[in-house]
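Can anyone check this?
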Amino acid sequence: MTELASVDSLLEITAHARLAAIVDSSFDAIVSKDLNSIITSWNAAAQRMFGYTAEEAVGRSVLMLIPDHLKDEETDIISRVRKGELLASYETIRRRKDGGLIAVSLTISPIRNASGE
């Protein structure tokens, strides 16, 4: 049983490493956040788009990217994600580190754990 558990663990680690490599090499900005709007991951394309490094972004509120007049969008987005909705082609404006505004098209989808939560 211990050998099987070790193989399963190794396969899981390999799958996570593969997914991390795909996300990091993507030309699309990929940002994940929790249900409290805290950024939990940030790829290289997000750095190019927004100007923040992963070290600057991870652990901070995603609200830093949302212009003041659009902050209510985040409440709506989180509410819809909690219901399990996928938001595809959500057109909006976001703010870069330098303060510049950029038009973006977001795809937002809930990520569930092994228990489906």
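Reply from J.R.: I decoded it. Helices lie at 2-25, 44-50, 54-57, 72-82.
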